Amino acid sequence: MARCAPADSPVGPLAVRRFDRREFQRLLLGGGLGAFLAGCGGDAGDYTAEDAEQLARQMREEAERTGRGRFGVLRFRGYRGLAELPWFELSPEGRLRTAVELPGIIDVHTHLGMSLYAPLDQTRRSERVRHLLDCDATDPGCELDLDVYVNANFSEAAHAALSREFVAGAVGLGEATRTHTAANLLAEMDDVGVARAAVLPIELALPFAGSLAERWSQAIREGGWGERLLPFASVHPGDGDAAAKLRALAAAGARGVKLHPELQRFFPDAPEAMALYGTCQELGLPVIFHAGRSGIEPERIRKFALLRRYEPAVAAFPGVRFVFGHGGARDLEAAIPIARAHRNVWLDLSSLGVSQIDRALGALGPERLVFGSDWPFYHLATTLAKVLIVTGGEVAARDAILRGNAEALLAPPAASSARKVGGAPLCGLARAQRDGGSGGTG
Ligand SMILES: [Zn+2]
């Protein structure tokens, strides 16, 4: 099986010794980040012409069908243009906020600024958050179509600027990244009624970068934000110390684990990753994956996000709650049958268009759909608007997606065993945990 073993990984200890810190920062600024993260090997069959065609077809059909679904045309000017919808308004200062009572929302998918090489002042407030894909940068704002995968709203130039911002932000020079602070996230949460948010680091295992997971959970502790910001862990499955690091992060209060197969360059069914899910099972931590192809990533890393590589993981660890980030993204159609077959799979709805969210709701029911925003890529209201449109007057489904399901998902294992998972009693999960599960190796 193709795998991302430490020996052929660019992120192993050998890589650390090849650079000194200053050299490495120059490499980053010179645009060498992509080359550094060239990814581990794989088999020729890992990404086929059919895979590529399937993605191209999805994107073509999405563009053709926008506005033709049962919700009609949903195009706005900028994130602030969402104030035209009945649930939102602009404050006197021009901030987008909710105009109705909603259940204290739980957002399972946010990040802080990925400032890998420079500390970010998490208490800093800004007049305006510059989202990584910033639909409010111009006046009027960019056209925001809620019926396409969200990144389709942004130009080539905006996507190129996003890549540059990542690199600049990593070394503390990103103008936008400086606004991606906990204080700004909390202010936007207040605006739109988000009570709590899972904060997801991604462990890129770059030399000298330190651990975002450690840094962010420390900042949350020191800021006294632990009631509202739920720190997640992230480790690299190819790291020989991954299990020990995960245990330490869990002991420090991590509420789950974020893994990003594309950015971290590993196959979700690689042996090292499977071993890690065993540790997650033992610790009772849910796993939120980036899952599926977004359509804007480099083609060479798309093989890591194909849904067929996730199914062996969720099948082998029925006692672990897995969230497919972005509901499987442009590969939602491949995620749905997996979620149908495995009740330990949940879909976070960040980035999906209204017709895609409607499709997921129709195919799976509301019980395992959870609200996610992918802040600071987009304004928190973007996915929220879509969920409100799709659920319409179905208040029970709306409240489950915006809050109740995430409460069950994120509950510590002891408390969650008395609850229900996906509408079914949790005894299967409790039993799997007691028995060490099927295939759990720790
Ligand atoms: Zn994300």
Q: Would you kindly provide a written description of the structure presented here, covering whatever features stand out?
A:
The chain has about 450 residues and is an alpha/beta fold. Helix 12 (about 330-340) runs parallel beside helix 13 and helix 14 packs across helix 15. It has helices spanning about 15, 20-30, 35, 50-65, 155-170, 180-190, 210-225, 240-250, 260-265, 270-285, 310-315, 330-340, 355-365, 380-390, 395-410, 415, 425-435; strands at about 75, 90, 95-100, 105-110, 145, 195-200, 230, 255-260, 285-290, 320-325, 345-350, 370, 420, 425. Residues about 1-20 and about 415-440 have low confidence and may be disordered. It starts with 12 loop residues before the first helix and ends in an 8-residue tail after the last helix. It has a five-stranded parallel β-sheet with strand order 8-9-10-11-12. A three-stranded parallel β-sheet has the order 4-6-7. Helices cover about 40% and strands about 10% of the residues. It contains 17 helices and 14 strands. Strand 9, helix 11 and strand 10 form a beta-alpha-beta unit. It has a single domain (about 10-70, about 105-115, about 195-435), classed as Metal-dependent hydrolases (TIM Barrel). The site of zinc ion has 3 residues, from loops.
Radius of gyration: 20 Å
Total strands: the figure is 14
State mean pLDDT (0 to 100 scale).
88
- Overall body shape: globular
Helix fraction, binned, reads 25-40%
Number of domains: 1
Could you say which small molecules are bound to this protein?
zinc ion
Q: Largest beta sheet: what is the strand line-up? A: 8-9-10-11-12
What is the CATH architecture annotation?
Answer: Alpha-Beta Barrel
Under the CATH scheme, which class?
Answer: Alpha Beta
- Quaternary assembly: single chain
CATH fold name: TIM Barrel
Structural class: alpha/beta
Largest sheet: 5 strands, parallel
Please count the helical segments.
17
User: How much strand?
Assistant: 5-15%
Distance between the termini: 20 Å
